[in-house]
# Entry
Amino acid sequence: MGTLINGIKTEKIMGRSSILKSIKENKPTLISLPEIDVNSFEETINLVEAFKKNVVSVGGSIKELGQIQDLDPEIKNRYPNAKRIFSQISESALGNVQISEQTKPKDLENLDLAILKGVFGVAENGAIWISDEQFSIRILPFITNDLVLILQKKDLCLHMHHAYKIIANRERTFGLFISGPSKTADIEQCLVIGAQGAMSLTIFLV
Amino acid sequence: MKVGLFIPCYINQLYPKVGIATLEVLEKLGVEVYYPTGQTCCGQPLGNSGYEEDAKGACQVFVENFNEYDYIVGPSGSCIHHIKEHFDILEQTEAVINVRKNSYELCEFIVKILGKTNLGASFPYKVGLHKSCHGLRGLKLGSCSERMDAYYSTEEELLKEVKGIELMSLTRKDECCGFGGTFSVFEEAISVKMGKDRIQDHLDNGVEVITGADHSCLMHLDGLLNRNNQPLRVMHIAEILNSCI
Amino acid sequence: MSHAKLAEIFNKDEAKVNWHDKALWYVREKRDTAAHNVEGWEYLRDLASGIKANVLSNLDNYLVEFEKNAQQNGIKVHWASNAEEHNKIVYKILTQNNATKVVKSKSMLTEECHLNPYLESKGIEVIDTDLGERIVQLAKEPPSHIVLPAIHKTKEEIDVLFQEHLGTKPSHGDPQYLTNEARKHLRDKFLKADVAITGVNFAIAETGGFVVCTNEGNADMGVHLSKVHIASMGIEKIIPKEEHLGVFLRLLARSATGQPITTYSSHFNKPAPGNAMHIVIVDNGRTEQLSREDFRSSLSCFRCGACMNTCPIYRRSGGYSYNATIPGPIGSILSPGMDMKKHSSLPFASTLCGSCSNVCPVKINIHEQLYKWRQIITKEQKQPLVKKTILKITGMVLAKPKLYAVLGISVRWMLKYAPRFMVYSKLNAWGKSREFPKVENGNFDQWYKNRKNNG
# Structure
């Protein structure tokens, strides 16, 4: 049992102070941080082609749109059975689910499709950065049965070092790199697309 | 150049042919070879079992026998690796430092120091190369499959020049055979299983003779082959390089 | 039981050993392919190793920096010296939030702390939501691999398990069907949970944030559907700057499964409005490992499992043969430091082939540390008398050339002339499945002497 010191229980202080003390006593002499020479990872490749290839290899689908007007017909074609749709893309008229201040995460339980904007993509792994700067309910890209992301071709970078430069000055709340649909290989190493998150991920490049 | 010939203890006692082939190969290459008769063992079996302190005496005997030579050459990657890595437990006198620096596995000595690859050998058989771990990853006799390095193999450089030889490709290029010194008796079940799997890989790929630079691995595989009457034989790379058929 | 004994039992079913070995070798091959596709892979490993070396040498300052930044963002930071403290802290947060239902994504640290049985003893329902973890949870088994927890289970075994616990129809182990049924089952749990517990893949000192990586999305499904998020991390999971994630996230999934990145790499910095986020920073023997100069770098491990996939012994003995929360090569250098008596056989469960050290993304010299642990264990743990005596006597003999010559002759004589039943007796492990070498007339010494004498 701990006694109170300045309102903080001593047992709480002890865990922290004993750990820090132990580290101080046991850590080695300071070894300096290596510098990352990003040039070592340079490759002259076609970013769009590499990105497309990697999206497919991680189980996603990807299509280049001639014009943004093609978006809705394409989506209707791929997801004909989607009834409850949320869209944050102004060029899409398919959205029929509203998200407001009052919407609770569990209210989205039966969402069939979410159409969101991807901020940028990473060619080396087919990943796209999205964050709650764009969608206020964090569960959205996970709980939706299927997910569509719209991405500008010009918003592609080569690798993760570039990616972290791009998001270095963001408002830090919650964001993620999403690469393909949810998946698992936990049953005898057999890859199954569609685990606990979205069952599919389709990317439209404009 | 004076070369001290290091004959590992188990080769001395159980596989003298390998020692003889090593000596003959070096002499054919014009090397002045000396064989210090007071040598015993590099101490590896004790080190690997956790008794490196008790091996210090053996290590000292090694240094005393070999420190006068320009190079120390032995037909065993694991023993040479042990000398280079684990003689750090001895006081680092000039003699110890020299011995550690100048010890070479046979293939590495021939290719790197003598700069030779064609020994005029002839061995018209299908041969599978077992890339023993301590030589491969320890002495870096070759690149290994799990690292992203440019491909190279000291043993293959020598074997490629042998007349009539057919070097067969294995499914798993550099998996361990399971000998591991005293591991072979203290973890017998896994050791045997690993050996059996290695042999099967060679059989699956049409190998007639398994070779390598470490006869401890070959001894382990040979023991399994003979028990199971399998149609393969083992030969140390020195014996292949020394053969003219 | 020692690793050798458990491995022997595992090897009685050769078909199962082959299946297990091939499954993990396949993952190793996928890793190789992924690594080949990265320009500068070996340089990435050098960087990761160097960053972690810096971290360990400045760990206290980074942890304090992390705490300050995390707190500024509304994350509550707790510190636990050991497993017991960790469990108590987690339970306290649960009671403060009137929580009785918990969903948990993969966290080897919570396995290490035995969190589930502790919470369950207090009447809390804990559902492991990673599919592999859920499978072993239903089977009442521990995970056998840190990344692929159910790698030891066939799909038929999983089918039977799901029939019993999830009410599925028999499907001959159809992975698609079973995964879909698990999705429905777990979704129900996510929607009803009060609190979500996750692990931490990387915690960033510079920002006070942390990253959780999954393929299934189960960590996020848990966290964003509940009001309270508890993240458990070992002290060593800290990295200095967010830009370092570029190095670590490029290495992690490729090393673990051969994917270029996990499906979800979720970056948590602030709790959602109205929600609470807690981090529990855990020591549990790590500062002690930090004091061990030879073994300190084992703390660089970020639990990718690559060493297990490449290890020829792990593949042929299975995770349970190690009898440790973290098995395989990395487990064999971490566990003796925590309980040397229990884990004394682990550093010997290796041929020291060195493959593990080469696949380790942070370049831990695992095989060298295994060798070093052996030297310590033989001194500090009672060794079998026969083994100890034979080795010590051998050491003495090898130091005396004349004695060695006598030993050599005796061994050769024994092998050549002793009757088979004596040489291949039960006492002689070599001879159980292998023949001894055929002994020639004379050893090398004698041949050389003769040659010298004959000019």
In short: Chain A touches chain C through 74 residues (CB under 8 Å). Confidence is low (pLDDT under 50) at residues 1-8 of chain A. Residues 10-26 of chain A form the longest helix (17 residues).
